[in-house]
Amino acid sequence: MSGWQTRVRKVTPYVPGEQPSDTNVIKLNTNESPYPPAPGVAEALQGQDAGLLRLYPDPEASQLTCAIAKRYGLSPDRVFVGVGSDDVLSISFLTFFEGPEPLLFPDVTYSFYSVWADVYRIPYEKVPLDEDFRIRPEDYIGRPASGIIFANPNAPTGIALALADVERITAANRDKVVIVDEAYVDFGGESAVSLLDRYDNLLVVQTFSKSRSGAGLRIGYAMGSAEMIRCMNDIKFSINSYTMNRPAILAGCAVMDNETYYAGCVRRIVETRERAKKELAALGFVFPDAKTNFILARHEKMPAKEIFTRLREKKIFVRYFGSKRIEEYLRITIGTDAEMDALFAALREILSGAPDGEKHD
Ligand code: PMP
Question: Other CB atoms closer than 10 Å to residue 246's CB: what's the count?
Answer without folding.
Answer: 18
